[in-house]
């Protein structure tokens, strides 16, 4: 944008969060203002949150960061759902919810995330988009603050913050889970820990001290950061440690936690096989599945499926070009869009492909992908039907059901459980007779479907035969 353009004022119609009163750009004169255009479904928008936190801490009284929530999905237009996302992502700067995309259009935004930098005089001085902008933004802010100092217009003032935290509860935004004959393993993501409970919900063991970090050791010492997908193989529990960009392992015999793969930093690779697992940077691993010696990883941040050979201790890109799209075909021709849920069965890997509101199928071991439900990045809804005629909204979990020959789907942004018949390709709602709020995890054990009812901080037990659903008391 041309530096001579005055930044358009924010409209009075916005819904505000994290601030005691609505903000006006004219009241921020003398300070730098950074507008972050984001939507809470978007993995790229999640990735830039640490950059924003860094800048806020570096310039606490000279920079005002304002998140302009610009929704993609209908669910994201609902203010109370935005508040849930703010708390789930631990965002502390002011958020303006713009469901009509008014600010988005006023500033000519075309992609998530995008940034508009406004100088101390109220003029737009930079327009950027995409991840990895911390250093560039830092340099620009330093430059324009120095310029404001020279012009004698720089002012400093702390930004008042008013948060609306979640109520205290045993779980905080539980995401994924794994059920065995007498145990549940839960990713208590908002508390940065893994819980082992019995089926009644009694906590037997807790892995992780509740503080975000990447530390190995015993269960009291260990730290995770927003852990998601889980899978148990013999006496080992594997964990997709999402915000650490790492694959962790819990020895259930000793209680020790170690790191199998990842450096703690976000990586970006297109095609390679890697042998030193602790030197390869992963990219928001979100879920796990297992088949014949291979641990499959939904690498949500890179729009790919990765594979780890547990015997050879190697990891490689298995399917997906890295392009965010919905494309079928052979391994590196196919494309995914933020794959977030995995389930294996009968030589097939099923994928909840969130940003295309799709369910994909990868034939093992050939790595040939086809699409069961879904048509495109901007094709979504809530509709029963046959295969690609049906519509979902940002599904985050799938569970293969061999005995009933179908797939249970957490249709997350429709807050529903759906059923896909593998023979007829019919998609129908499953009425579980219990209110859901963005469920993001499923685990099937025999005739019981376990559900992570994420935004209500609950785990639900659904008896498929009796059609009864009850919350379990985590204690």
TrEMBL record:
Q: Where is the Thioredoxin domain?
A: 1-146
Check the record and name the SUPFAM superfamilies matching this protein. Answer: NHL repeat, Thioredoxin-like
User: Which InterPro entries does the annotation name?
Assistant: 6-blade_b-propeller_TolB-like (IPR011042), Thioredoxin-like_fold (IPR012336), Thioredoxin-like_sf (IPR036249), Thioredoxin_domain (IPR013766)
User: In its UniProt entry, what is this protein called?
Assistant: NHL repeat containing protein
- Recorded source organism is Thioploca ingrica
Q: What broad taxonomic lineage does this protein's source fall under?
A: Bacteria, Pseudomonadati, Pseudomonadota, Gammaproteobacteria, Thiotrichales
């Amino acid at each position: 944008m041309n530096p001579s353009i005055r930044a358009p004022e924010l409209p009075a119609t916005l819904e505000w969060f994290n601030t005691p009163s609505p903000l006006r750009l004219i009241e921020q004169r003398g300070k730098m203002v950074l507008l972050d255009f984001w939507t809470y479904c978007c993995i790229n928008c999640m990735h830039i949150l640490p950059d924003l936190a860094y800048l806020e801490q570096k310039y606490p009284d000279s920079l005002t960061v304002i998140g302009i929530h610009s929704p993609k999905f209908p669910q994201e237009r609902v203010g109370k759902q935005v508040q849930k996302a703010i708390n789930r992502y631990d965002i502390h700067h002011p958020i303006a919810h713009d469901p009509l995309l008014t600010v988005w259009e006023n500033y000519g935004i075309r992609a998530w995330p995008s940034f508009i930098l406004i100088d101390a005089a109220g003029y737009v001085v930079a327009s950027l988009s995409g991840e990895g902008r911390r250093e560039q933004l830092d340099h620009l802010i330093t430059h324009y603050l120095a310029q404001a100092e020279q012009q004698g217009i720089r002012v400093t003032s702390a930004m008042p913050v008013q948060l609306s935290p979640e109520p205290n509860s045993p779980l905080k935004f539980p995401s994924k889970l794994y059920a065995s004959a007498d145990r549940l393993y839960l990713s208590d993501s908002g508390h940065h820990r893994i819980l082992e409970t019995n089926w009644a919900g009694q906590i037997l063991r807790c892995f992780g001290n509740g503080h975000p970090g990447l530390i190995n050791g015993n269960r009291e010492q260990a730290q995770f950061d927003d852990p998601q997908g889980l899978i148990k193989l013999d006496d080992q529990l594997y964990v997709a440690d999402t915000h650490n960009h790492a694959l962790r392992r819990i020895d259930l015999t000793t209680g020790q936690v170690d790191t199998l793969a990842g450096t703690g930093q976000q990586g970006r690779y297109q095609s390679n096989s890697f042998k030193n697992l602790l030197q390869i940077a992963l990219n928001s691993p979100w879920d796990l599945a297992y088949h014949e010696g291979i641990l499959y990883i939904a690498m949500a941040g890179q729009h790919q499926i990765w594979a780890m050979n547990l015997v050879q201790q190697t990891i490689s890109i298995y399917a997906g070009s890295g392009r965010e799209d919905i494309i079928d075909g052979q391994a590196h021709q196919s494309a995914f869009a933020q794959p977030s849920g995995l389930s294996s069965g009968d030589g097939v890997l099923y994928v909840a492909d969130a940003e295309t509101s799709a369910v994909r199928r990868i034939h093992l071991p050939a790595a040939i992908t086809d699409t069961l439900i879904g048509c495109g990045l901007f094709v979504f809804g809530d509709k029963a039907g046959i295969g690609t005629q049906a519509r979902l909204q940002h599904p985050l979990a799938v569970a293969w059901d061999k005995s009933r020959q179908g797939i249970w789907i957490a249709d997350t942004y429709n807050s529903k459980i759906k059923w896909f018949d593998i023979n007829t390709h019919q998609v129908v709602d499953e009425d579980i007779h219990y209110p859901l709020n963005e469920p993001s995890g499923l685990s099937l054990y025999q005739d019981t479907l376990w559900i992570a009812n994420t935004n209500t901080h609950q785990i639900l037990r659904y008896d498929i035969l009796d059609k009864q659903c009850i919350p379990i008391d985590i204690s």
